[in-house]
## 1
Amino acid sequence: MDYIIKTEDLHKSFPLGNHEILDVLKGVNIEIPTAKLTILKGRSGSGKTTLLNILSMLDDPTSGKVFIDGNDIGRMSLRQKESMRRFNVGFVFQSVALVPIMSAYENVDFALKLADYKGDRDKRIKDVLSVVGLDKRMTHMPSQMSGGEQQRVAIARAVAHKPKIIFADEPTGALDTLTGLGIIKLFKELIEKEGITIVMTTHDPNLMAFGDAVYEMEDGELKYVPAEL
Amino acid sequence: MIRFIKYKIFNKKWLNFCLLTGVVLLSAFLSVYPMFKEGSLNRLLQNLFSDYIESNTTYPAVLTTEGFIKGEAYTDVDSALTFMDSLEKTWNSYIDVPVIERQQIIEINAGYADERISLKTRQINFGYVDNLKDHADVVMGVWPEDAASLDNEIAKEALAEGAIPCVISQKTYDTEMITLGQTFKAYASKGTEKETFKAVIVGIIEEKDEESPFWDRRLSKFDRTLMTTKEDFSELMKKYQETEKKYTEKVMIDYTYIDYNNAEDFYSYIRQFENIDKKFNANFKTTLATYIETKKSISIILLTFEIPIIALLLLFIYMISGRILEMETGEIAMLKSRGVSRFKVIKLYILQSFFIALVGAVIGIPIGYLFCKLGAGTDAFLVFTLKDTSIYRPTVMMFVFSGISFLLSMLFMTIPVISLSKFTIIERKSKKNSGKSKAIWERFFLDIPLLGLSIYLLFNYSRQKEAISLTAISGGQIDPILFLDSSLFILGCGLFALRLTHILVNLIYKLGRNKWKPAEYVAFLQIVRNTKSQGFISVFLVMTIAMGIFNSNLARSVNENMEKRISYNVGCDYIFMEKWNVTIRKTSPISEAYWKYHEPDFVKYEELKNYGVESMTKVVSDNKTVITYKKNRELGCQLLGINTKEFGETASLQNGLNDKHWYYYLNELGQNPKGVLVSKNLADKYDLKIGDKISYSRFSPYDSSKEYAEAKAEIVGIINAFPGYQSSAYELQEDSTYKKRDNYLIVANYNTVMNIFDLRPYQIWMKLSKNADYEGIENYFEENEIRIIEKTIREDLIKEQRNSTLIQITNGMFSIGFIISLVICGVGFLIYWILTIKDRELIYGIYRSMGLTMGEIFRMLAVEQIFSSFLACIAGFGVGMLTTFMFTKLISIVYLPREHDIPLSIICRASDGIKMAVIIGFVLVLCFVVIYRIIKNMNITKAIKLGED
């Protein structure tokens, strides 16, 4: 199996004041398979979002290494990391995080502009919005859409520029179970159609079955959960 | 509840601090009004009194009455004085102002004297002036008390025969041919008997100090009056017991006690006194009437200057209060969800507003006091000086106006609550995020009718220029809408300009929608989709800058035009005339008296060069010259007799007023001794051309009805303008209106004028260096006992004008208003952007997570600033300039109503724009630095996390 991301002994600590330090990640080693859905599960405060932030280059580890496509991101400059995020990475957050002044179409278009998409932008926007089932609501503003619809626009935006990896932090956290399941199915479809690697965090046990690889974070340590379990 | 309000206020301390700033400024600016108004009106009143002194050369606050007394009750001076004192006491019981001097006169018409006192009449008077010796000097002879010591045989003889020793005025001595020791035989009737007695002249007197308040009736007005001692006059009163004696009571009150608070009461008392006593007269009645008329006008103009700034401040309070409430919508919704009624929510905010408004109103009063002092100390727009502003005193009305600010602040802080408390949190969010709503004015096109109305009013006022100018000249009430119209235009045009900038930005965005890079794309979208939230700050910027530009240009135009006109009217830096001695040879008849003036030593003025005098020249100036052309005679023309070379070096005239440089005309005149320059209005009236022959004549200095000599002349130049010459003047008509009339000028060579019309007193014109010592010049005159009878100092006139009420309130209020608008604009701008950036923290986190670099984020902000704030600044500047060109000349008429040879010009100084650009640029840079720090320190994951919360 190919692994797009690999870590070596990742540590992350936060100072708490009074000279105390909170160790959030305690030597995490993880391998993320390419073009698969990897799920990080765990209780609140277990460190899964911190791990996701480090894997997605939004945050730096205190120690340890992260390799993406074989490149040590610790050796990359800020600009290289920004470039990596811009062209090869997509994000989906729990807080829907669409740009409120842009319509669904414009939110997706913005991601394409950022990634300097060379193809037919209009066709691509319509395609991805069609994949997430919003081709009829392209001109709607975020405030005119439901939470689930907004999250689907966020997913369309995350995949539009054909990134290698999508990081999704609790993408179904604010949605009802049925809508949440719809989002996961969408992820699976995208992996199949676009060959994208998706790493998502969740604490919803109902979704575990959909993961190609499932890891559990517990008190800063990672535990692989075999798929059949 | 109080604790909750305290928590709410301190929870958003910076925003509430801004709100408090707005409330404090509102209270300060409103409380400036009564203090500034009272101070300005007090200054106006004092200026009117000063003007009176200047034009009448007598004390400006004198209560006078006169009448006749006779009979046994008044057989001596003391009984008459006691009666006169009782009159003063009656006045004082109403007008309780310190008396600084009194002139009490008793006169007896003594009928015909047997000596020929003059050719016209033999009438003589006996007079008594109380305290005369304290106020007059004997210039020849002695006082009657010292008559025994007089070295004059004729007088001694007369005194020995029991003649009453008397003094007469210099004027009587000069004109009536009376000599020292001259004796008069007078007759006093007692029943059928006639008592004959003698009076002898023992002294000639003149005023110690002509300018003393005592001399309301000067000695020159005691024609043919023989003045004597109290004792002798008491004897005369007994002799003339059956004759009516005229008393004149003059009380000089301290006019500095007449002020804003009591001027109208005094006016009313004066009118009551006049009704009771037909002979009563107060020489300051007209001054008070002018003051009362001008007071209304000044009060209204001052208010019209305040209104735009007050509107801006209320808008500011509304904006900040609305912003705070917007951030507290969650709290409001929470309170409502817990069952708190809408009324209770409003009550909570009313109470919160009450505290802020109260604190602001109280702090505003001392700040208002400082603003007033600052404004009163201005000499021009934003030029603050340390000049004496003690006439501007705090007043009780400041508390009343502060109270009004308290109520207004509360109202404007509470209005947004009423609308916000209607919505649930969901409705509010959806409304807020819709991103499509435009500001009310933009949606309902309010800018168009505002602009239309202001242009219509401008058009109307422009047609009434003549009437406005005549109203201003007569001190009448100026329509306040004239001033407000410019503010209305700024508002209408400012909003319209903003509409245009929105259209422009939209166009730029649409044209390059597919070409813009991400940073520019987002920035444009942000402006295009967010016009409403940026609306307030843009309106602020446009209004502040436009008002600042217009006010500074208007103030500068008024100030500089005024200074130019004064300089032109005077013609040089300093003009004076020394009192000349004159010898009059009395021949018979008197009308043919021969006079000879003695020219003072001119060389002594050379000393003045030590005090900064660069050049000086003699100038003959006569406003009663008669010009004759063929059979036409033009009376009352102005004659200037000049030495062309020296005059050219001393006087000044701005370029462009004549067809050629004015030196050209001086050269033409200098080459032809008989040549004259005439004013264009005279040439037009009589169709005069260069080469035409005219003649001009002057009146005899001792008989203003008789022309003295005539000069033949040839016209060598026709001029529009000349130093010291105004081609028109305004005359007061019987119906109290003013009418313009032409002034005609003739300029001749000094030597020609002197040769033909004999030596007569001339003016001395001087050009001074920039650092001239004016005080030194005054001291030189004093130390060398040079008696100056006429003096015009350009600098003094300019200073006086700067202190004139209207100019002072304009410079003061515009300067304070501008500072206030800059403060609120700066604070508002900073707060708006900081809150905006805080609001967008999640969005910036998303942009950063998507790979937007820091550089791009700043570019995005820069583009947003350029196309919203900077464009608004440019629009403000444009609107300010447009308003300047449309309104300055019209409004300047109020300040400079008289038609003048120096046409009104619009003065725009780049330095004003630069000053403002520096201040606004500083605020923009400060804002950018603050935003930069916020974004630089932004942690992406934290920002996103915040968004989730």
Note: Residues 51 and 99 of chain A are 25 Å apart (CA to CA).
## 2
Amino acid sequence: MRLSTIPISAWVGILGILLAVFCALFAPLIAPYGESQIVGAVWQPMGGDHLLGTDNLGRDLFSRLIFGARTTIFVALAATVLSFSLGMLLSFTAAVTGGFVDQAFSRFNDLMMAIPTLIFALVVLAVLPQQLWILILVMAVLDSTRVYRIGRAVALDVAVMEFVEAARLRGEGTGWIIFREILPNTLSPLLAEFGLRFAFSILFLSTLSFLGLGIQPPAADWGGMVKDNKDGIIFGISAALIPGGAIAGLAICVNLVVDWLMKRTSSLKGGRGDA
Amino acid sequence: MPDLLSVRNLKIEATSYPPGEPPKTVTLVEGVNFDVQKGKVLGLIGESGAGKSTIGLTALAYGRGGVRITGGEVKLNGEDLLKLGPAGIRKVRGCKVCYVAQSAAAAFNPAHRLGEQVIEASLKHGVMGRAEAEKRALYLFKVLGLPSPETFGQRYPHQVSGGQLQRAMTAMALCPNPELIVFDEPTTALDVTTQIDVLAAIKHAIEETHTAALYITHDLAVVAQITDDILVLRHGKMVEYGSVKQIIEAPTQDYTRALVNVRGTKREEAPDQSDTLLKVDNITAGYSNGFKVLQNVSLHLPKGQTLAVVGESGSGKSTLARVITGLLPPQEGTISFDGTPLPRALKGRTNDQLRRIQMIYQMADTAMNPRQTVRDIIGRPLTFYYGLRGARKTERVKELLEQIEMGGRFADRYPAELSGGQKQRVAIARALAAQPELILCDEPTSALDPLVAEGILKLLLKLQDETHVSYMFITHDIAIVRAIADSVAVMHRGRLVRFGPKSKVLSPPFDDYTDLLLKSVPEMEIGWLEKVLTTRRMESAGN
């Protein structure tokens, strides 16, 4: 792979993601004001001291957007990584072991998928204490059902190949077969799926925050900011649209990169054949 | 006699797009000249990548995806096909020149009846009316020896066998009364016993209808039976062009000579000693639906010798290998290895038991992990069975690569960066790394070109001399059996038909199936097909 073969759309996506990550990492250094610092009147227009204006409590919207990137990306990333670890481990075990284990895992997975994700999350989060790690865990478990589906499908394709049979004949254990024989050959589609699920996680977190069950105030996060400022829309104040735009922008950027990865990896030659 | 098809100075190019580099133009075929007279058959022969199919398709002025005919002329009855426009070409294709593909199963539309598809081209081109076309189809079905020709056209493609489908495709090509037919390896995918029927049918039909043909194949013995002239190709260039008699009996080029003598490996049979390594006793095996793939199979293999298991596809040869490895536990019977009984299932066996039996597969592509380098592929058994690491492992990998005549510089390549023959050699090295006593070879040469396959066989024999390993060699090719086996087991529909030392199994008196199998293997001899057919006809007349 060379840099010159990356299409412009993917560059736009990469730059967008890098910008968001940069904001998240260096939030206290970049943000002109504090996260929950009240700096002016309610819903001041853009310009002047406040680049994007102020929110419903008079906090600087630009600063909150930068701090919000931190929580939003951290929670979404942690949930996605966790859901992938869980989903892939279970799906690969099911595909390699087969028989009863496969049936038990797969039918339980079907059961979980039969319940609408959002309603499930609302019920569980309403009951459990409102802590960040519980939020991440719930998101990860719910998302891992989707990862399980795709993971099992791609692993089954590889598990019947002769080199896996050769490894079994050699006497290799399940661990070796999963991590050394199957995983490297399924990495490309799963990587693309990872990008997609990350975008979904951001949206899901925003949804939860909007409903009041995600990140708790006064911590900033993009979905919560939309919720805080939604009443302003009635008065013609655009404050709610800015974090909404940020969510859309990041989701689009991630998808641009994923589209490019999918194109690169969907070829049968393992993505090396075409540019 | 004027030439029907005359090809002059043919040049074919394609554009490849290597990632990250500007597109390159590759010359596939250059400077090829040949003629086909009315009613004559020309054989195009060469290994894979020689450009034989590409040249064959130029007779229809067709280039497969991305391939362009950039130079020369292809004259059919004096008219240059390359200068015709799309409408002119359409009048030629499927009407004056027809095509028979290698895989008839993929070439027929499974949703339509065979009869409709056979006459479709004739109707489309307005060559004849429906009634006449149906009459001709019936005549062709009869000429091609298809069963119940009156109702054959009513069937769907999945209702007839592979050999019949190939003959139906020949009927489809012959139906519009073409002047030339291009046969693209029509019998390569068939069993030997079926191949001979299809060959005979094609030959008979061509003679009966006085159609000229281009016959593309990689098997010189097949082409010797059916063609009048042969054009030998290599790397898109002409190697030798002459009559069948001249090519087979007095080839002038080294490459042709190598092709003619490809089955030159011979080996004296070793005496059946009492020192038995593998003993398969009364094995019955099958799948959970109750279908028995193997029934009461018993055989044994002495140390340091080769047992060839022959039979057509579906005879249970590969299943026997799966039972021995433990992948498919037998329902009845026992397997003993070096005097001790082996646990039936893979899970029950110790690592040392697993180490002593290794396997080589038919498709080396799928038998090796594409994301591992040759070093990892060969090195893993070394670490797994012998605990070798670091410099000692590197040293041993290099040694093994030398042993398979490849050399240490291949260690860091991925399987995708190796040729077909090299991949199979690496697969052999992987088996060898375990220092096994028995290697199960599941048709390791049948996916390879004849000269490459010959090299692999020689290597296997050399390794046997060096390490005294035993082989159980699964194949459908009697020539290979003659070349390398000490004892032979003939399988048919899951049963062992014949088993014993090579000299005994391959000499009369034969049982019916072995006789059929042996007589079906094409020999590099002009007139062989007629001879076999005459004896067959006499036999059936006698019955």
Note: Chain A touches chain B through 24 residues (CB under 8 Å).
